[in-house]
Design a protein that fits this description.
- The complex is a heterodimer.
- By secondary structure, chain A is of the alpha/beta class.
- Chain A has a single domain, classed as Rossmann fold (3-Layer(aba) Sandwich).
- Chain A has eight helices and eleven strands.
- Chain A starts with a strand and ends with a helix.
- By secondary structure, chain B is of the alpha+beta class.
- Chain B has a five-stranded mixed sheet. Chain B has a four-stranded antiparallel sheet with strand order 2-12-1-13.
- In chain B, strand 3 and strand 4 form a beta hairpin.
- In chain B, helix 1 packs across helix 12 and helix 10 crosses helix 12.
- Classes of the chains: A alpha/beta, B alpha+beta.
- At the A-B interface, helix 2 and helix 3 of A face helix 11 and helix 14 of B.
């Protein structure tokens, strides 16, 4: 983990609906994520963790506030630039896989590269390499539907890393898997982080998985309730930064939240 | 994303729902088939008529009559407008004689060859027979008009118009065997006997013209025999032997040639109009036949077009279903960086692909049937055996390309609706969609 802040948010708010039906999903989020860090976003359902991930992944636009990627304000980017950014720098792993079930494993993995407009022999090579990383190179020609759940999620991870991303966003990556298979997927993700320095942002309910991350950001009702760093993680934690950030969040009113809500 | 990948994906997506795509293509096929078939028949008929015109050598030929005569015919044709009011200044019998003074004026019109102006006499032959047969056959004969007129002959030549020493005749092909000859070549140079009766049936006079040619069957000749001017003049003299002197001198119809390369037919027609004459070119005459076919085929084309519009709605429906089914897939594509423009393009390409295959399918089936029909009609005893140069269906590259472009255009327009819906999907909503 370097000290370079890859992703940060400032006063991030997101609301849905209008007037009486207005629903505040996020109420001022200030977080910073460093390159190579593994971050778990935890919280009950409805706490806004998925919304936060979508905003961080530039899939949606905040109602208020700023998201900075590599120090640059992403609100200034045009749609085309955002698309290219997601395509080149991000990888996505979803709970329910989202694969084209009737297509081959290889074609599923190739998708981001096809969207990027790479030449077919190059994308084949890159996809085979990604499949090798997740240990499924022998299944390249199989139909995606014929794989087991664990294998499917490995294909999704291969798809997420095929474009050599800087950040992988994983939304409940083990949610649909039994604990043994889920464990293997977790190991795979952390190995990618360790070996390739890919930043991991995981949205999860799973406390065990969250604990394995460098840091947990717990959301309650659209605010950061608390952040905890994992002392057992191999990397030295950049204390000064987190202290400052946590303070900031508090200042924004975690403790006041309940009063406001009440 | 590369265009070739978008095209490949569009086709792959169509194959995912084979039955649905096939049914949509089938609907397009019906429209495509009817339009291309109609175009092919139209092209076939036009080709044939044009061929006939060319064989007729119609350029520069004018059939001239008094304006009143043409108006009388038009009045008959426009009977739905109700009867016309009586005008004492006009002769109402239809044909009006052309005054000698008018003929002189006609010869002065720029562009008209004064030497070509000739009276067109209606001659009447009672029967034709030959030395080879006892039977007599009726015959419609006409003086071969001067000028550029050519006749498509299967044997022999056209009569020599300037020959005033010998009676010459051109016979339609069916008369060859009827008159007892083995083939067209055998009758050339032989004499046949024409029985000509004067209009009051006082006596029959026999003419024995030499057969100089045999006419290929066709629409323009319509089974007419052509005589040289010498023979026509003498037959007319016989026909009108007992006419009152006044009537004998009257001229009702003229033929003339004009310099079609240097003069505009519209100007010549205007000038003729001023001296009370009307003229028809071969194209005008043929145009009447063409417009008859055009109306019928136009109706079929409209049906085809309606079928295509219905097929267009089919495309909209099919693609809306696809958008619905593939909502999550679209969401994933967009999350992974695909632009809305490419999503839009993907769906419109699916529509275009449906249109393309439907149109091609229609054209292929139509061409196959057209070919079979052409072959069957030309077979011995076939419907068109008598017209070897007439193909019922003629497919031109121009028509084929036009039909494909028309259908692709309709498909594209139909595809834009679902494509717009797809391209506007928000990736998050799409990914959440169950």
């Amino acid at each position: 983990m370097s000290n370079h802040v890859i992703l940060s948010t400032h006063g991030l708010r997101k609301s849905y609906g209008k007037r009486d039906n207005r629903f505040e999903a996020l109420r001022g989020i200030n977080i910073s994520i460093k390159q190579g860090e593994t971050v778990a976003i935890v919280g009950k359902s409805g706490s806004g963790k998925s919304t936060l991930m979508h905003l961080l992944a530039l899939l949606d636009k905040p109602t208020k506030g700023i998201i900075e990627l590599d120090g640059a304000d992403t609100s200034k980017l045009r749609q085309g630039q955002l698309n290219r950014l997601r395509n080149k720098k991000f990888g996505f792993v979803f709970q329910s896989f989202f694969m084209n079930a009737n297509d081959s494993v290889l074609n599923n993995v190739i998708l981001p590269l096809k969207i990027a407009g790479l030449r077919s022999h190059r994308r084949r090579r890159q996809a085979m390499h990604a499949l090798k990383t997740v240990g499924l190179e022998s299944k390249a020609k199989n139909k995606a539907n014929d794989l087991s759940g664990g294998q499917k999620q490995r294909v999704c991870i291969a798809r997420a890393i095929v474009n050599e991303p800087e950040i992988i966003f994983a939304d409940e990556p083990t949610g649909n898997l039994d604990s043994v298979t889920g464990g293997k997927i977790e190991d795979l993700l952390f190995e990618l982080n360790r070996k390739q320095g890919i930043t991991l942002i995981i949205v999860t309910h799973d406390a065990e998985l969250a604990k394995k991350c460098d840091r947990q950001i717990r959301l309650v009702d659209g605010r950061v309730a608390d952040e905890s760093t994992n002392p057992k993680r191999r990397t030295p934690k950049p204390t000064s930064y987190f202290t400052h950030d946590t303070g900031d969040t508090d200042a924004d009113g975690i403790l006041n939240t309940d009063k406001e809500e009440a | 994303m590369k265009l070739i990948d978008i095209i490949k994906d569009a086709n792959r997506n169509l194959l995912r729902n084979k039955l649905r795509s096939f049914l949509t293509i089938l609907a397009i096929f019906i429209g495509s088939f009817s339009i291309i078939s109609t175009s092919a028949i139209q092209a076939g008929v036009n080709d044939f008529i044009d061929g006939q015109v060319n064989s007729y050598g119609g350029e520069g030929y004018l059939a001239i009559a008094s304006k009143d005569s043409f108006e009388a015919i038009e009045n008959l044709q426009n009977a739905s407008d109700g009867p016309l009011e009586y005008n004492p200044d006009k002769i109402q019998t239809g044909a009006t004689a052309i005054e000698p003074a008018t003929i002189a004026k006609l010869k002065d019109i720029a562009g008209i060859d004064p030497d070509s102006v000739q009276e067109q006499k209606t001659i009447s032959v009672d029967y034709i027979t030959s030395a080879q047969t006892d039977k007599k056959y009726i015959l419609s004969a006409e003086a071969l008009p001067p000028g550029h007129i050519k006749v498509d002959t299967v044997a022999g030549t056209t009569p020599d118009l300037n020959n005033r020493d010998e009676y010459q005749i051109l016979l339609p092909e069916d008369y060859v065997s009827a008159l007892g000859y083995d083939d067209a070549a055998a009758i050339i140079g032989q004499t046949v006997t024409l029985g000509v009766v004067d209009q009051y049936r006082h006596e029959t006079k026999k003419f024995t013209p030499k057969v100089v040619g045999v006419i290929a069957p066709g629409v323009v000749s319509l089974g007419y025999a052509y005589t040289n001017t010498f023979l026509a003049d003498d037959i007319y003299a016989e026909n009108s032997k007992y006419y009152p002197a006044e009537l004998k001198e009257q001229v009702f119809a003229l033929t003339a040639s004009y310099d079609y390369q240097n003069y505009d037919i519209a100007t010549i027609k205007d000038e003729l109009e001023e001296i009370g004459l009307s003229a028809m070119t071969v194209e005008d005459i043929i145009g009447q036949i063409k417009s008859f076919f055009d109306v019928i085929l136009g109706v079929f084309k409209i049906f085809g077009f309606i079928a295509l519009l219905a097929a267009g709605i089919g495309i909209v429906n099919t693609l809306f279903m696809s958008v619905q089914e593939r909502t999550r897939e679209i969401g994933l594509d967009k999350a992974l960086g695909m632009s809305s423009r490419h999503v839009f393009l993907g769906f419109t390409l699916e529509a275009i692909s449906l249109g393309f295959w439907g149109s091609l399918f229609g054209i292929a089936v139509s061409m196959t049937i057209g070919h079979l029909a052409n072959t069957a009609f030309h077979a011995e005893n076939g419907l068109l055996a008598a017209f070897p140069t007439f193909n019922l269906a003629t497919y031109t590259i121009h028509d084929i390309i036009n039909v494909v472009i028309l259908i692709i255009f309709i498909a594209f327009i139909a595809g834009t609706l679902p494509a717009r819906q797809a391209s506007r999907k928000n990736p998050i909503d799409a990914l959440r969609y169950e």
